[in-house]
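Figure caption, in words: inputs first, then the predicted bound structure.
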Amino acid sequence: MTQSTERLSTGQDGLERAAALLRQGALVAFPTETVYGLGADATNARAVARIFAVKGRPEFNPLIVHLGALSQVQALVHWNDRAEALAEAFWPGPLTMVLPLREHAPVSKLVSAGLNTLAVRLPAAEVAHDLLTRFGGPVAAPSANRSGQVSPTRAEHVTASLGDQIEAVVDGGRCAVGLESTIVGLAGAPTLMRPGGVTTEALQAVLGRPLAKRRDSEAISAPGQLRSHYAPRARVRLNAADWEEGEARLGLGDVDCDLNLSASGDLTEAAANLFEHLIALDQSGADVIAVSPVPHAGLGVAINDRLSRAAAER
Ligand code: TXA
Ligand code: MG
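Bound structure (threonylcarbamoyladenylate present):
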């Protein structure tokens, strides 16, 4: 999709261009106070799928959604008193809150990796805030580096890591915090999911209670392993070369089926459809969801990772 990465300024022209590119479904890296994020329109499943392709992520980790205003956050998640207290104390800033996702929130299921929670953050950096306000909607953004590399704190780090795979990078110089945001789970008992820019002590002082720590067995690096991770009610049969009576049929490529991940076999399109289609077929009430073979290359690795979890014995 991209020839060479546009380097945009933090002036009005640069940020207007960045917002326009996001609207077109392009990937735009931008500075926050923590690290550079690799941004995509969170309502555009295909743009979100490209984030995973470009990062070379072998699994679909859920992504943080960045917004410019509190009212926009509250339209996506179920807000509560603890979130309100933390927002008053630390937003905008390097704090991410994980809250219950509203049922019809206009965010691609790939953003939350099918979970019923959503990670949300209001960044403090002026450039990020300005871009998000111009764009006017939710922006999904992991750190703007290839999977397994350190998070970028300068525009040069982004281009060194991602090369010309992304449409643009907004060059805002060095990130002030240089460390990712603190992630707090607020869907149940307040839980520290990742230490970061806001200290545990500061959080506990506001909450008036100790934060639970996420157990090692639930490592944040692999939330796809969590039991709470979306798993269909139906049994999942993989590598289906043909269909059996009564199965819900999830196809890939030129096959007759109920829903097709991508009729042309495009793996970015398949990733964009994966969670939405699994959920839709599960809701159709079939006992078994049969899935066409998915090539084990590129985004196919992450798709197969997710499918094999969905198919695992429970
Ligand atoms: O400072 C930051 O947070 C940066 C900037 C760009 O905002 N972003 C960042 O994103 O560090 P990323 O994708 O590298 O890390 C996000 C973490 C992942 O470990 C992911 O598993 C976790 O957030 N996460 C996202 N949504 C979640 C959810 N619903 N439940 C649990 N964990 C979640
Ligand atoms: Mg990261």
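Residues 142-143, 151 surround magnesium ion (ligand 2) (CB under 6 Å).
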